[in-house]
Amino acid sequence: MLPQVFKNWVDSQYENPRGPVGKYIGEKMVRQHRIEVKWTIEQLHIQSGTSILELGCGAGDAMATILQRHPDVHVMGLDRSKTIIDSARQRNQASIHTKRANLIQGDLHQLEMTDASIDHVFSIHTLYFWRDVTTVLSEIERVLKPNGTFVITYCDGKGEIEWNDISDMIRNQFIPAAVSLGFKDVSVQRGPDSRDYHTVAVTGWKPNS
Asked: Which of 103, 171, 194, 206: disulfide with 35, CB 3.0–4.6 Å?
């Protein structure tokens, strides 16, 4: 019984890092996810002057990478964990001070941004924890500007093993919901393997209404 209880506790820390263990896990994820972070940022095709929102920003490594590469963009990071937001704040302190970045502790099912205010929305390894796919996609559609894009990165297997549950969810829930909301060119993009995990992203864009 104890091993399963412990496993459940560890899993909950990945979903919502808390305390010293949560801070450690946040930094561990920074080290582990560098490959998919780099690839995801490339899929955004960032231009000068754009605004970018990361859902589930973790310890702020993707934000820091974007801000280093693109000196004239604004990046917002949202995460439910106060512990991890504190780590992201430390990592991006200079950009926050110059108002190139800001952090929000909140729920991705109810975004605290005005309508049509964001050029790009991306998220890395949060999809597994979405309680309601349609609600999150509706919020993404609401905050995106016309011609704005989304990139939602996840894994659908490791080595020779395919994770059919996540693939089925993308095919049967995510893509139909995104198309129903009006997103265009909704498709699955295959990325580089990371630690033998299969990197994938669903992408799409919001047309002019």
From this structure: 194
**Rounded CA gap, 65 and 74, in Å?**
12
Between strands 184-190 and 51-55, the pairing is unpaired
Q: Is the pLDDT of residue 31 over 80?
A: no
Reported as type and span, the H/E element at residue 10 is helix 2-15
pLDDT tens digits, 153-179: 999 999 999 999 999 999 999 999 999
CA distance 153 to 139: 17
pTM: 0.87
Lowest mean pLDDT among 12-21, 65-74, 82-91, 144-153: 12-21
The position carrying tokens 């995801």 is 40
Residues 6+ apart with CB under 8 A from 176: none
Torsion angle (degrees, nearest 10) of CA 39, 132, 183, 156: 40
Three-state DSSP class for residue 79: strand
Whole-number Å distance between alpha carbons of 92 and 88: 6
Would you say residue 7 has pLDDT above 50? Answer: no
Q: How far does CA 120 lie from the centroid of its chain? A: 11
Average pLDDT over residues 91-109: 96
